[in-house]
Amino acid sequence: MRLIVFSFVAFIGLSRLSADEPQRPTKPLFRDFIGINGHTVSFKPELYSPVCRLVRDYHPMEWDTGKDSNYKLDFPFARNRVNWEQVYGSWKNHGFKTDACIMFETLQADQWNDIPKDAYLYGKRFAESFGPSAKLPLVEAVEIGNEPGKYDDATYRKVFENMSRGFRDGDPKLLVATCNVNVGKSGDYHKSVQCVEGLNSSYDVLNIHSYAMLEPWPTWKRSYPEDPALAAFMQDIDALIRWRDVHAQGKQVWLTEFGWDASTQSPASEGDFAKWQGNDDVQQAQWLVRSFFLFATRDLQRAYIYFFNDEDEAKFHASSGLTRSFKPKPSYFAVSHLHKTLADYRFSRIVQGGVGEPHVYEFLHESEASQAIWVAWMPTGDSQTKKLLLSLENHRLLGVEEMPLNSLPVDSRMMPLVEGKIDIEVKETPIYLFLKRDF
User: Is 3 exposed, middle or buried (CB count within 10 Å of its CB: 0-12, 13-18, 19+)?
Assistant: First the structure.
């Protein structure tokens, strides 16, 4: 999709939280937390509906306007005659909430006829046509740009301020998000969050992309999400949350891209990707699911997987799909199980943690306070296992499931307890413990 060089910092082990700490109201239920990146007419909502209920679309503004930024829009049709009502309508019919990332950056800054006027009119017409208040509401949220790093900061701010004003005037209920922003200077694939400082009334969401990159070009090597050697995977997210707390209180923070490449192919013997290093299918499944657990501990409202599908190419960002040629990978089954299992649950506390030590996190049901799910896994990347004698405190064990990697029925089993403790083997594949609290 694009060539990105990231530098990432270590995930630092989280301290144990008190069992008596009150549930933070900002923690989302998992049904409102797990998302996937799709793309226009290629996305198959019926295939991905078991995975999640949030979908992000790469919506090319150029499809709607061509190279004429002042083109008279004919929604629901794009200028290239794609019918957005059919596209987004089919997604809605399968239970999805759509976030449309308006990719204006394929137009060079000097190709706009009149940025303030054209950006405003595009935003207004889009919101009127597809927003929550439209006759046929199809889009819940919009992003103003994806990775518009080729626009200078002043020009991005001009597009952002005017397109946002159009969205607000077209439908005040439509959520407005920034492009991919980071704390610090702008780069080729992100803008500095300073570009929107002082424009708090113009947006609802700060948006960030983050990948677990261990090495940049030429290997693009990624690591497991808890790796202490990472240079910025979780830290970039944490920095944006801290910036929000100071400069934009009340705004949501969404992670709209993260993921891992997993190809069965070998890279080409020469060229840009000759030294590319991917991950295997099992690692992709394990690391995606474990990332959601880490994200859930933050004040992060959504996390979208990149990508929905791939064609099994041994290239950067070319094998990140949950499906391969629309056939499910192990990650598809793992994330579908995650969504089904935790849809009505939210993160509560860390029962046990520590760098390189078994992690156990607790998730509580949205309305049944006695229902809890503990998830246990090894936060490592080299197939480690460890025996753990885990105290269930004041809970009864109802069953145990291991994260699935295929379409076979998930085996739910019981395990013996000795004086309220369970002896389990913790692996890199998460184990779900279904519990009922005895008050």
Answer: middle
- Give CA–CA dist 305/15, Å, rounded: 26
Class of domain 30-346: alpha beta
Calculated CA dihedral for residues 335, 337, 339, 343, nearest 10 degrees: -160
CA-based nearest residue to 36, from 330, 321, 304, 318: 304
| Cα gap 347→29, rounded to integer Å | 8
The rounded distance, in Å, linking the Cα atoms of 326 and 332 is 10
Instruction: Give the integer Cα–Cα distance in Å for 3 and 300.
Output: 26
Domain ranges of the chain: 30-346, 347-437
**202: which residues sit within 8 A by CB, 6+ positions away?**
160, 161, 164, 165, 168, 176, 196
User: Per-residue confidence at 5, pLDDT binned at 50, 70, 90?
Assistant: very low
Contact 308, 375 (CB under 8 A): no
Measured CA to CA, the distance from residue 164 to residue 158 in angstroms comes to 10
DSSP codes joined into one string, 233-296: HHHHHHHHHHHHHHHSTT-EEEEEEE---B-SSPPPSSSTTTT---B-HHHHHHHHHHHHHHHH
Q: How far apart are CA 97 and CA 427, in angstroms?
A: 34
Regarding pTM above 0.90, the answer is yes
Compute CA distances 245 → 164, 167, 258, 297, whole Å: 22, 25, 23, 16
Q: Kindly indicate the confidence band of residue 10, based on its pLDDT and cuts at 50, 70 and 90.
A: very low
Let me know: does 183 contact 239? Beta carbons within 8 Å: yes
Pair of tokens at residue 105: 């950056």
Measured between alpha carbons, how far is 169 from 187 in angstroms, rounded to an integer?
31
* pLDDT tens track for 293-341: 999 999 999 999 999 999 999 999 999 999 999 999 999 999 999 999 9
Block residue for tokens 């993921």 = 259
- What architecture does CATH give domain 347-437? Sandwich (2.60)
3-state SS assignment for residue 364? strand
Confidence of residue 415 (pLDDT cuts 50, 70, 90): confident
For 135-163, b/e burial (b = at least 16 CB within 10 A) is eebbbbbbbbbbbbbebeeebbbbbbbbb
DSSP-derived 3-state class of residue 112: coil
